[in-house]
Write a structure and sequence with these properties.
The protein is built from seven helices and eight strands, in the order H-H-H-E-E-E-H-E-H-E-H-E-H-E-E. By secondary structure, it is of the alpha/beta class.
């Protein structure tokens, strides 16, 4: 088994358990991570603010389940879940705030992440994430040079990239050429203003909607409506 396949399978194995935690639980853990990063030095202060912003928006947008009316009295609940495993790429032009911001947005939505960073202090960032209580292998490092290889793997759900427009085009092409499902592609090229990361609805790019249905007709639902469309 190659290194990339091993890391990807480990990440996918953790994804179900990670997304079983609520958005509030994941946010609490990520806020603890932000506090640890902020204790390192002033260079991480903007990173902590970005983590808090991503958690705040996720709590506002995707934390609550929504009840949907069922025609036969069944219970329908609309909720969100992570898409799977994301590849996070930070090239030579990416700053720490972009790297940490994308990682926070990926994780708070219920995804796992594999990080390929050229110059960023990824070991420090992931070390503090583990110290904050994040389960092992939810976020994993991988050599930057292996990014293109894993981008072509059909098992990952998407790419979050901080870097140049040229790298965005390159990775988008790699993802488009692979077999399997279409990959979500989220990018940040504006390292000064972080225009994409500052979008209030960014976390919606990393989730999928699901419906949980419980048929309660036997305990008081409108059974007569079940006859509609029965063909009788």
């Amino acid at each position: 088994m190659t290194t990339t396949n091993k890391v990807l399978k480990q990440s996918l194995a953790m994804q179900d358990a990670w997304q079983q935690q609520t958005v509030a639980q994941r946010s609490e853990l990520l806020l603890a991570w932000a506090q640890l990063l902020g204790q390192r030095d002033q260079s991480y202060h903007e990173c902590t603010a970005m983590i808090r912003f991503q958690c705040q928006q996720a709590l506002a947008l995707i934390a609550n389940e929504h009840e949907l009316q069922g025609p036969t009295g069944e219970s329908n609940q609309l909720y969100t879940a992570g898409r799977g495993c994301f590849l996070l790429v930070a090239d030579e032009t990416a700053n720490n705030e972009a790297l940490v911001g994308l990682m926070a947005a990926v994780l708070v939505a219920g995804n796992t992440v594999i990080c390929c960073a050229a110059n960023s202090p990824i070991d420090e960032v992931l070390s503090d994430l583990l110290r904050a209580g994040c389960p092992d292998r939810v976020a994993q490092p991988l050599a930057y040079s292996l990014g293109p290889e894993i981008a072509q793997n059909s098992l990952f759900a998407g790419i979050a990239l901080a870097g140049t427009k040229q790298n965005c085009i390159h990775y988008n092409q790699l993802a488009a050429e692979r077999d399997g499902q279409l990959a979500q592609f989220v990018y940040e090229t504006d390292m000064r203003n972080l225009s994409q990361l500052s979008e209030p609805t960014l976390c919606l790019r990393f989730i999928t909607e699901r419906t949980r249905t419980i048929n309660i007709t036997a305990v008081g639902g409108n059974a007569s409506l079940l006859e509609l469309g029965s063909g009788e």
